[in-house]
Amino acid sequence: MASPRLETYCCPNRDAATQLVMNFQPEVFCGVCIGSASISLLLTILQLLPKKGQSPRKMPKASSSSTILLLISICDILGGLGIIFRSSVWLGFPGFIANISVVNRTDVWPSTFCVGSAMWIQLLYSAGFWWLFCYAVDSYLVVRRSAGLSTIVLYHMMTWGLAVMLCVEGIALLYYPSLSSCENGLEHAIPHYITTYAPLLLVLVANPILFRRTVSAVASLLKGRQGIYTENERRLGTEIQMRFFKIMLVFVICWSSNIINETLLFYLEMQPDINEMPLKNIRSAALITWIIMGVLNPMQGFLFTLAFYGWTGWRVDLKWRKREIPWESLSSSTVGENAYPSPVNYQSNIHDSKKISTADSQQTDEAISMLSEGNTSSDERLTRSSPIYQGW
């Protein structure tokens, strides 16, 4: 799981709320994390592998959207590996982990492992949040035809730069002036929690807005392609809207428990004694959401692949080959002499307007295909409804 409580547990003088959740059935909790992360890891890799009987496809050359989706999955895979490694060490070497609670000690390896593994998990999931935000931005730019190969470099700089900067800044503030004296007050912990949850809250707030504007822009593109809004265009627009909805639904399901848990724990920290009887229900809710986090956080990787591509099946094709996206073969058929113009362009007496109209329709088809990447039915319906296809 990914929670700033992982870093605060590395402090020997940790707060009572952190002590409460981290000491609650640690063997069961680590087992849940290992099981959930392992299942998600295997299914995510299975989803990404090429399948037998499916039409080969490759990454689009004109957009970075599908590359971003792959990077999100990679971040989830690496974050899941960090969860498995950390939880395995906690289960296999309980004496090694117990040394974290010792203030005056000469062995620095327990604390080094605690801080390092926690930072690895936080960094990878934080980077995944930033990549998800970049996907929403890129989807809108693709429809507006403002994205291209150069934008992926900017996304890399923003994602990894901000993820590393916020992670290092939060850890530095938490462990200042030393690991043995951290968590003496909320002035150490609050900046760390803010830097951890800032990208998560950004996705929750900004992505729905960007997705909504993208869907509106897609509808305008589909209407303007032929001047009419047919049933095929309406279905394609609905599928793109549903894809965005599934992405946000997975994100909310996997991370809403973190926000609830952190709110409850902060409330407990404000109390003089968290073990008082009136706080029993709050303590129980905090422990329940803590276990839920251990299940849902690692499952994000697999659930995202379902939202991105749908279920791709079990039949893996290990013969790697060049993939081709339907709209690329469509584009190659129209290069050169525009041998297959649309019926509308065929009736036009102006040769230049034929080229412009065909090129504009082709760009529109490419932009929509990028957003519906992974949805075979959408790609086929787009191809059939394309003016270029109708001229064949």
Features:
392 residues; G-protein coupled receptor 143; disordered C terminus; receptor; L-tyrosine binding; 15 helices; Rhopdopsin 7-helix transmembrane proteins; mainly alpha; elongated
Structure notes:
By secondary structure, this protein is mostly helical. It has a single domain, classed as Rhodopsin 7-helix transmembrane proteins (Rhopdopsin 7-helix transmembrane proteins, Up-down Bundle). The protein is built from 15 helices and no strands. The protein has helices spanning 5-8, 16-22, 26-48, 65-92, 94-98, 109-143, 149-174, 186-226, 231-269, 280-309, 326-332, 343-346, 351-371, 376-385, 387-390. α8 packs antiparallel against α9 (231-269) and α9 packs antiparallel against α10 (280-309). The N and C termini lie far apart (53 Å). Mean pLDDT is 78; it is low at 56-62, 322-359 and 379-392.
